[in-house]
Automatic annotation (TrEMBL):
One of its GO terms (molecular function) is glycosyltransferase activity. It is an enzyme of class 2 (transferase). It comes from the Bacteria. This is Glycosyltransferase. Residues 35-143 form the Glycosyltransferase subfamily 4-like N-terminal domain. Its EC number is 2.4.-.-. Keywords: Glycosyltransferase, Transferase. Pfam families: Glyco_transf_4 (PF13439). The keyword GTP-binding does not apply. The keyword Coiled coil does not apply.
């Protein structure tokens, strides 16, 4: 970008998220997230009123939507795009929203956004195919998910699978039978936050043969990366969703991943050898998938993460510069 022109100003929703910070090009100014009781959501820029009341002198050059639009109705999103005075970029992380059981309104909101978008991005060819076939997006742009860990942790890889349920987000299997069924097929460590949301699951897993329950406070990066790097395989215990930053983190450390057959998880991996797919919600099948991966051993990431990151950042820089060129 030319040094004698001001930086492209992007209202990224959100802005201060690890993914959006990772893909942010140099010389692009992200407007700050709002502080709404300590959160950035529900972001007011998803309302028509926000744009109608905003001084034109304060318009960003581009609105780039990543997440957070589930807080508004499809009609509110329609009103917003009708009032939007700047180009819209949409990155489709979630064809299905992991937080929602009923996806109908999510799909409707997503359709409104991609119909209005000057550019639609997504993370896998699998998701791009859905956007073309189901949403009429003629030319979705595929940009890979960048690395989570800048350097892989060197750890002795164990002979046990691992599942990280954290605080049981909405798309994580909560039924203890799923994890007991995994343990019937393969030795497994289940990592769970020490919070009320996991209490019933933890009680249901007590004294399960072949299963080690690890109850913990949220891990910092160092402890988390060490746990992932030492696992023989990780199981993603998801019932819905599309893409996974957790999968990328596992692959940063060469850990193979058992993935459910929903969404685009399997297609997200750097190499087919790094994943084994199982029917979502089927613990026995998940255990067998993990056992298959354990038998293969660790699978180093295939490709160059540094070069990939440069490509992802460059793709965003080109899109921003193209759309904002006439506004500066």
């Amino acid at each position: 970008m030319s040094s004698n022109r001001r930086a492209v100003r992007v209202l990224s929703i959100p802005a201060n998220h690890p993914y959006t910070q990772a893909i942010r090009p140099a010389g692009v100014a992200y407007l700050p997230d709002p502080d709404i009781d300590g959160n950035w959501w529900p972001h007011p820029a998803f309302t028509a009123q926000y744009w109608r009341e905003l001084d034109p002198a304060d318009y960003p050059d581009i609105l780039h939507v990543h997440f957070g639009f589930e807080h508004y109705t499809p009609d509110e999103i329609r009103d917003m795009v009708a009032a939007l005075p700047v180009p819209l970029v949409v990155t489709v992380h979630d064809l299905d929203n992991p937080h929602l059981e009923d996806q109908r309104e999510h799909h409707e909101r997503l359709q409104v956004l991609v119909d209005a978008a000057a550019a639609t991005l997504t993370l896998t060819e699998c998701a791009a195919e859905v956007l073309r076939a189901d949403y009429g997006v003629e030319e979705p742009i595929v940009v890979k998910h960048p690395r989570i860990a800048e350097a892989p942790v060197r750890a002795e890889r164990g002979a046990r699978a691992a599942v990280f349920v954290k605080s049981l987000r909405g798309n994580v299997v909560a039924d203890p039978a799923f994890y007991r069924d995994i343990a019937a097929e393969v030795p497994v460590d289940v990592h769970a936050h020490d919070v009320p949301a996991t209490a019933e699951l933890r009680a249901g897993l007590a004294e399960t043969a072949n299963l080690r329950l690890i109850v913990h406070e949220p891990y910092g990066d160092e402890a988390l990366f060490a746990a992932v790097a030492s696992a023989g395989a990780c199981v993603l215990p998801y019932t819905r969703g599309t893409h996974s930053g957790w999968l990328e983190m596992c692959r940063d450390h060469g850990t193979p991943v058992a993935v459910p057959d929903c969404g685009c998880y399997a297609s997200q991996a750097d190499t087919p050898e790094a994943v084994a797919e199982y029917p979502a919600g089927d613990g026995r099948a998940a255990g067998r998938a993990a056992q298959e991966l354990l038998a293969r051993g660790g699978v180093p990431y295939v490709g160059d993460r540094e070069a990939q990151l440069h490509e992802v950042v460059a793709a965003h820089a080109a899109i921003y510069e193209n759309l904002a060129g006439g506004a500066r």
